[in-house]
């Protein structure tokens, strides 16, 4: 499947099973006439596969070479796993392709065991990407960026599947990223338009 096809198929899946019209209250407290639950796509067998490959394609497009991807639990969890698995598949198909490992950021350090806040891959100075499913205020992504940096890793980009295009959210994300780019696969309007197109078929 080509880059365009991975992304197109992912958009179609998001529009079909993750997008809802109605009266919703977002986690920020704001009201919205639509809701996008990306987890129904990222935890879907085919949707998850498409998520991993579409993000890998985006990394190649922007010439980003992380050794790991991570994000704040739990919205980022399936995204992280899907990207890591897709990288292993790609490495099998293309000898020499880099494996991308995964890590998850807890909302708070656990009070038992090792007391770690980051689970999975953790290596000082490693170039990493922060991922999330939906970005509105950017708070979850920013928390993960800060945790990764506090752990000594180098954040080289942040990526979300769907950006709701809230001006304050993008401003906050770009400020948190600093010199690293903030990228998205789709806007909420992209998903809405595809949802409307699907209903009209």
Strand and helix layout:
Layout: H1 3-17, E1 19-25, E2 31-36, H2 39-42, H3 45-61, E3 68-72, H4 77-93, E4 101-105, E5 118-120, E6 127-135, H5 139-150, E7 154-163, H6 167-177, E8 182-187, H7 188-200
Parallel strand pairs: 3-4, 3-6, 6-7, 7-8
Antiparallel strand pairs: 1-2, 4-5
Helix pairs in contact: 1-3, 1-7, 3-4, 5-6
Structure overview:
With 201 residues, the protein is of the alpha/beta class. It has 7 helices and 8 strands. It has helices at residues 3-17, 39-42, 45-61, 77-93, 139-150, 167-177, 188-200; strands at residues 19-25, 31-36, 68-72, 101-105, 118-120, 127-135, 154-163, 182-187. The strands form 2 sheets. The chain has a 6-stranded mixed sheet with strand order 5-4-3-6-7-8, with helices on both faces. A two-stranded antiparallel sheet has the order 1-2. Helix 1 packs across helix 7 (188-200), helix 3 packs across helix 4 (77-93) and helix 5 runs parallel beside helix 6. The longest helix is centred in the first third of the chain and has 17 residues, at 45-61. The radius of gyration is 16 Å and the shape is globular. 41% of the residues are buried. The model has no long low-confidence stretch (mean pLDDT 92).
């Amino acid at each position: 499947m080509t880059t365009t096809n991975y992304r197109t198929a992912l958009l179609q899946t998001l529009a079909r099973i993750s997008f809802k019209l109605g009266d919703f209250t977002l986690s920020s407290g704001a009201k919205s006439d639509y809701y996008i639950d990306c987890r129904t796509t990222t935890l879907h067998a085919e949707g998850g596969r498409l998520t991993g490959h579409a993000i890998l394609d985006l990394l190649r497009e922007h010439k980003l070479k992380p050794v790991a991807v991570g994000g704040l639990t739990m919205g980022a969890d399936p995204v992280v796993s899907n990207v890591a698995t897709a990288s292993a598949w790609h490495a099998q198909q293309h000898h020499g392709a880099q494996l991308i490992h995964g890590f998850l950021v807890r909302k708070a350090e656990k009070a038992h065991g090792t007391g770690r806040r980051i689970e999975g891959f953790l290596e000082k100075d490693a170039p990493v990407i922060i991922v999330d499913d939906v970005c509105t205020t950017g708070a979850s992504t920013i928390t993960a960026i800060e945790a990764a940096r506090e752990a000594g890793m180098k954040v080289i980009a942040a990526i979300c599947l769907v950006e709701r295009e809230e001006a304050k959210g993008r401003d906050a994300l770009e400020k948190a990223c600093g010199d690293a780019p903030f990228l998205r696969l789709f806007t909420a309007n992209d998903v809405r338009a595809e949802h409307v197109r699907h209903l009209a078929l």
